Amino acid sequence: MIDSHSHIYTERYAEDRLAVIARAAAAGVTQLLQVGCALDDSQAAVALSAQVAGIYAAVGVHPHEAITVGPEVLDALAELTRHPKVLAWGEIGLDFYYDHSPRDVQQAAFVAQLQRAVLCDVPVVIHTRDAESATLAILQRYPVPRGGHVHCFTGTAAMAEALLAMGLYIGFTGIVSFPKADQVRAALRVVPLERLLIETDSPYLAPVPHRGRRNEPAFVGHVAAAIAQVKAVPVAEVIQHTTDNFYRLYGTAGMTWECLAVPASSGALTE
């Protein structure tokens, strides 16, 4: 299995990061994508990827931090994409639910980062919440040739269909297992297995039966099981498709994938 979106480089895992990695490996997780939300987060994600086999990174600025996006930050992120374990630019996008940055600033930062991702020839990881029409409009105007992954999808089935028409992959989290998440399950039903990714978004959104706890990559199997139930297919089929999809989206010609390996000691995980 692959956890295609998590954040175990953060302080929430400072005391037991090594154990979290060990539990993920024991659960059958083969790769983790650590996704940045700001420049310092991105640097931390890259550092962790450099220290642990099977961990990869994405670099970018989340819409909550969009006010920080300027030429210097964009240049620094572009330089990070040159690291051999950086797979994508993200997470970027729009969040009109919290509005931690003004909406016009979010949209400008989203466009600027999409354009830089094209120049750097990398896929994108997209965050969108309560911003359906604005997100679609920007993606239609600024397509990304290498494609991308709309993570933690919570939109409508119609939005999912529009994203699929753009060639994007769609990721689902533990929300699929929440009793009241009928809209998310409705959207999942229109997404073919060939375009699905599974993720935890750790430390957030722990799936049933761990809901309410700090999430971690070892729980991604519960996400796969919840998807399998909605899709009425074997769990193994969900795992196989989502693994193949991850490699197809984020891999490059001749790339050799590392498998998750637990470092010998926590001393290897330096900040």
Please characterize this protein's 3D structure.
By secondary structure, the chain is of the alpha/beta class. It has a single domain (2-265), classed as Metal-dependent hydrolases (TIM Barrel), CATH 3.20.20. It has helices at residues 17-26, 39-51, 71-80, 103-120, 132-141, 157-165, 182-190, 220-231, 235-250, and strands at 2-6, 31-35, 55-59, 86-95, 124-129, 148-150, 169-172, 196-198. An 8-stranded parallel beta sheet has the order 1-2-3-4-5-6-7-8. Helix 6 runs parallel beside helix 7 (182-190) and helix 8 (220-231) packs across helix 9. The two termini are 27 Å apart.
Write the SSE topology.
Blueprint: E1 2-6, H1 17-26, E2 31-35, H2 39-51, E3 55-59, H3 71-80, E4 86-95, H4 103-120, E5 124-129, H5 132-141, E6 148-150, H6 157-165, E7 169-172, H7 182-190, E8 196-198, H8 220-231, H9 235-250
Helix pairs in contact: 2-3, 6-7, 8-9
Q: What is the CATH top level name?
A: Alpha Beta
Helical content band: 25-40%
Count of discrete domains: 1
Q: SS-based structural class?
A: alpha/beta
Task: Supply the CATH superfamily name.
Answer: Metal-dependent hydrolases
Distance between the termini: 27 Å
- Which residues form runs of ≥5 with pLDDT under 50? none
Spatial order of the strands forming the largest sheet: 1-2-3-4-5-6-7-8
Encode the helix/strand succession as letters. EHEHEHEHEHEHEHEHH
Strand-residue proportion: 15-25%
* Count of strand segments: 8
Radius of gyration: 17 Å
Largest sheet entry = 8 strands, parallel
CATH architecture grouping: Alpha-Beta Barrel
How many individual helices?
Answer: 9
CATH topology: TIM Barrel
Mean pLDDT: 96
Can you tell me the overall shape? globular
